[in-house]
Amino acid sequence: MIRPAICDYPEHYRGYVGLVPEGDIIAIINAQIEETVAYIKENEDRRDFRYAEGKWSLIEVIGHMIDTERIQAYRLMRIARGDKTPLAGYDDEGYVENARFSTRTIDDLLEELVAVRKSTVSLLRGLSEDTWEKRGFANNGEFTVLAFAYIIAGHELHHLKLIKERYMD
């Protein structure tokens, strides 16, 4: 399987797609969650840390990662199944605010993050070869199924990088 072409997703997502290493995207998505979970577990005492006023706490970032993966996987599934309905965007700030992630434990959220990832991997493994190039619209842009897989992987890599750079000593 090749990487998605630049025309397979809106420019806004290039940063995420660019973070994904070469290789089998399903294997990458399946393996990367272990590093993320291990790193957060090692630093769970930072759960309420915010690197600047108005920024999300570490636990809110974890919740955001969960919500975003669910949404991107849902978009991927709809397009993979041939649904041509344009899908709306979402307000990630509002989702974090309304989810009240700070009332939950790190272990609880990490368990959910792993469960969501397992679901995503199962979805991807069930796709036929011709499905990866199907196209659809979400958040006012055109995407392929393959692009969404890369966006899911890249979004996690983006946030893990930020966690390492801004949330840890």
Present the secondary structure layout.
Blueprint: H1 14-19, H2 25-42, H3 58-80, H4 92-99, H5 106-125, E1 135-138, E2 141-144, H6 145-167
Antiparallel strand pairs: 1-2
Helix pairs in contact: 2-5, 2-6, 3-4, 3-5, 3-6
Overall description:
This protein is mainly α and 169 residues long. 58% of the residues lie in helices and 5% in strands. The chain has helices at residues 14-19, 25-42, 58-80, 92-99, 106-125, 145-167; strands spanning 135-138, 141-144. Strands 1-2 form a two-stranded antiparallel ribbon. Helix 3 runs parallel beside helix 5.
Q: Give the rounded overall mean pLDDT.
A: 97
**Distance N terminus to C terminus?**
39 Å
Number of helices: 6
From the alpha carbons, calculate the radius of gyration and give it in angstroms. 16 Å
Which structural class do you get from the secondary structure elements? mainly alpha
Helix content, binned percent: 55-70%
What general form does the structure show?
A: globular
How much of the residues is beta strand, in percent? under 5%
Q: Pick out the low-confidence regions.
A: none
SSE string:
HHHHHEEH
Going across the major beta sheet, what is the strand order? 1-2
Q: Can you summarize the main beta sheet? A: 2 strands, antiparallel
Number of strands: 2
Distinctive features:
169 residues; mainly alpha; two-stranded antiparallel ribbon; 6 helices; 2 strands; 58% helix; 5% strand
Summarize it.
This protein has 169 residues and is mainly α.
